[in-house]
């Protein structure tokens, strides 16, 4: 069941999907059975939403930030959202999901979050509100990230790990445990991505600036 809006005919939308009147999308998207897309949601090209995804829903936030109807969700291109993924709209800004991201079954992105390109969120990963997950990060099964936290580029969180606000997850690091602790450098992931030592150092400097700004 669709809203009154029309979409490019290259999009494949299952008849059981529910799409709100303020949702827009580009081309070659696949919207699977029983998906719900609502709110001020903008979707790019070539995304796949498998069954039962809930996208652009109001923030799970008990504070009245005045953004329930103003802010929404923006999604890039070439992403895969598996069954039962949930992404909330923003409250003080749009929730942003980049391109070439994989969100596996049951993963969640909270309001006002920023998920950069090429991130992998494994099954049941939970991302708190106002969190930033930087490019190429890989979060293992059931990992939990506290709100207002930053996950560095090409970092990894082991399965079942809990990243608290007190722990820094720097670019190119592997953290494990509850609460997370540093294990080792993500050398395999960095090599696969072609990240040089100088590029990693630059990412760490940028991360330090971001975390200092976030703490203020």
Question: Which structural traits does this protein have?
Answer:
alpha/beta; ten-stranded mixed beta sheet; 2 helices; 216 residues; 25 strands
Major sheet strand order: 1-4-7-10-13-16-19-22-24-25
Pairing-aware structural class of the strands and helices?
A: alpha/beta
Quote the beta fraction.
Answer: 25-35%
Q: Say how many strands there are.
A: 25
Largest sheet: 10 strands, mixed
Short summary:
The protein has helices at residues 187-193, 197-215, and strands at residues 12-13, 18-19, 24-25, 30-31, 36-37, 41-43, 48-49, 54-57, 73-75, 80-81, 86-88, 95-97, 102-103, 108-109, 114-115, 120-121, 126-127, 132-133, 138-139, 144-145, 150-151, 156-157, 162-163, 173-176, 181-185. With 216 residues, it is α/β, with parallel strands linked by helices.
How would you describe this structure to a colleague?
The protein is 12% helix and 28% strand. It is an alpha/beta fold and 216 residues long. A ten-stranded mixed β-sheet has the order 1-4-7-10-13-16-19-22-24-25, with no helix packed on it. The protein has an eight-stranded parallel β-sheet with strand order 2-5-8-11-14-17-20-23, with no helix packed on it. A seven-stranded parallel β-sheet has the order 3-6-9-12-15-18-21, with helices on one face. Strand 24 and strand 25 (181-185) form a beta hairpin.
Write the SSE topology.
Layout: E1 12-13, E2 18-19, E3 24-25, E4 30-31, E5 36-37, E6 41-43, E7 48-49, E8 54-57, E9 73-75, E10 80-81, E11 86-88, E12 95-97, E13 102-103, E14 108-109, E15 114-115, E16 120-121, E17 126-127, E18 132-133, E19 138-139, E20 144-145, E21 150-151, E22 156-157, E23 162-163, E24 173-176, E25 181-185, H1 187-193, H2 197-215
Parallel strand pairs: 1-4, 2-5, 3-6, 4-7, 5-8, 6-9, 7-10, 8-11, 9-12, 10-13, 11-14, 12-15, 13-16, 14-17, 15-18, 16-19, 17-20, 18-21, 19-22, 20-23, 22-24
Antiparallel strand pairs: 24-25
């Amino acid at each position: 069941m669709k809203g009154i809006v029309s979409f490019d005919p290259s999009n494949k939308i299952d008849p059981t999907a529910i799409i709100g009147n303020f949702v827009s999308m580009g081309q070659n998207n696949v919207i699977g059975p029983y998906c719900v897309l609502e709110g001020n949601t903008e979707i790019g090209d070539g995304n796949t939403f498998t069954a039962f995804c809930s996208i652009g829903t109001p923030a799970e936030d008990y504070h009245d930030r005045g953004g329930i109807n103003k802010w929404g969700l923006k999604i890039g291109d070439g992403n895969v959202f598996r069954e039962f993924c949930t992404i909330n709209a923003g409250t003080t800004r749009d929730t942003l999901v980049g391109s070439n991201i994989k969100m596996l079954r049951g993963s969640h992105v909270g309001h006002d979050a920023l998920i950069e390109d090429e991130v992998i969120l494994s099954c049941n990963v939970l991302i708190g509100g106002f969190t930033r997950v930087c490019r190429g990060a890989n979060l293992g099964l059931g990992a939990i990230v506290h709100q207002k936290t930053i996950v560095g580029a090409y970092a990894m969180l082991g399965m079942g790990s809990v990243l608290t606000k007190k722990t820094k997850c720097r670019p190119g690091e592997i953290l494990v445990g509850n609460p997370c602790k540093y294990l080792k450098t993500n050398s395999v992931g960095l090599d696969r991505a072609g990240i040089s030592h100088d590029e990693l150092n630059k990412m760490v400097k940028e991360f330090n600036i971001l975390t200092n700004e976030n703490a203020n």
